[in-house]
Amino acid sequence: MNQQYLDKAKPVRTGEELDPNIIGPWLMQHIQGLQGKLKITQYTGGASNWTYCLTYDNCELILRRAPIGTKAKGAHDMGREYRLQQALKPVYPYVPTMLAHCDDESVIGTEFYVMEKLNGIIPRQNLPKGLNLNAQQARTLCTNVIDCLIELHKVDVNAANLNHIGKGEGYTQRQIEGWSQRYTQAKTWNVPSAKRVMAWLEQHKPTQETICLTHNDFRFDNVVLDPDNISNVTGVLDWELATLGNPLMDLGNTLAYWVEANDDFLAQMTRRQPTHLNGMLTRQQVVEYYCNKMAITIEDFRFYEVFGLFRLAGIVQQIYYRYHHKQTRNPAFKHFWVFSHYLIWRCHRAMKS
Fold it and tell me: Which pairs from 254-263 meet CB under 8 Å and 24+ separation?
């Protein structure tokens, strides 16, 4: 295995420590065969749930827990995320194996679960230094990633016993209303109201919707690649937002993060996955590829494009709202209001196209 490019954990952030004297005995009690002294490190990429690497002499495990502090109703539901992946694993092999779940908050102060560690490369903003793909390799990687989304959308929800994980019908309307409300509540004086976008989404929502299993955060930096064959996907991570939803909205959400080589400089500043590489499909090509593989026809993808961009504007603005009101001091969020403007502008441009 090509070790030098593997995704690696870092020292635990101050204030986010796990006590090995508490978690160690719990792990020994609930997971068989652990050997040696426990070493704890942390993955620093995510802004939502906290993710730790638990290293023993004979294996590595992943622990996921909610962050400290108040949480929105339904957010950071570790038990739901654990049970969903457990049920999905037999029909969708990219899911890590679930090992143990703890709903007793007295152990570490919150609910958590433990799963197997998928060793591989996570394609973030740029591929690891020294790892280069030619155009054909990049295209193969791109289509393999999209194929994983397509495979998810084809899962038989009833056979997987997952028909209880979401409300299903009416999903599209709930999403429009929910994200309109979230954006409005997070609005600061220096960003647009986006009322025209909200009205347009309401007026242009599809009259029919297909309901299937959706990931809702499907990006390159949530997949794990085979280090010996980087074009192959071996895992899909971060199932916190998965539900029964509209697959085309799932695709629209994915494409909101999709920055092409020819996109403007503001888009390039927001890029967090290597979709700019020579050989990667364009957003339009992704839609065509998806429709061909799913054997469907979409005459107008604009609703899904605009929704994906508006939802991302909502996410960005919620983060900026926290910075604006001094709930976080992270300087990386200081100029997020600019990207709220930019994404709403992208929405207006797509609405006119």
Answer: 254/149, 254/218, 254/219, 254/286, 254/308, 255/283, 255/286, 255/287, 255/304, 255/305, 255/308, 256/305, 256/308, 256/309, 256/311, 256/312, 256/343, 257/219, 257/312, 258/283, 258/286
Q: Could you tell me which of 145, 154, 290 has the C-alpha nearest to residue 232?
A: 145
Tokens of 314: 């909502």
Residue 71 has pLDDT above 80, yes or no: no
Cα–Cα nearest to 145, from 219, 247, 239: 219
Cα separation, 190 vs 278, in Å, equals 37
Q: How many CA atoms lie within 13 A of 160 on its CB side?
A: 24
Q: Tokens at residue 312, please?
A: 């991302």
Q: How far apart are CA 64 and CA 156, in angstroms?
A: 27
| Percent of the chain's residues with pLDDT above 90 | 80
Q: What angle do CA 325, 328, 329 make, to 5 degrees?
A: 105
Whether the per-residue pLDDT at 73 is higher than 50: the answer is no
Q: Count CB neighbours of 331 within 10 A.
A: 8
| Dist. CA 165–CA 290, nearest whole Å | 25
Which helix (DSSP H) or strand (DSSP E) does residue 106 occupy?
none
Q: Which of 268, 255, 273 is nearest to 311 (CA)?
A: 255
pTM of the model: 0.93
pLDDT interval class at 70 (50, 70, 90): very low
Cβ(31)–Cβ(61) below 8 Å = yes
Nearest-angstrom CA–CA distance, 92 and 215 = 12
DSSP 169-201: TTHHHHHHHHHHHHHHHH--TTS---HHHHHHH
The tally of CA atoms less than 13 A away on the side-chain side of residue 161 is 7
Q: If you write DSSP's letter for every residue of 126-171 in order, what string do you get? A: SPPTT----HHHHHHHHHHHHHHHHHHHT--TTTTT-TTSS--TTH
Do the strands 60-65 and 50-55 form a parallel or antiparallel pair, or are they unpaired?
antiparallel
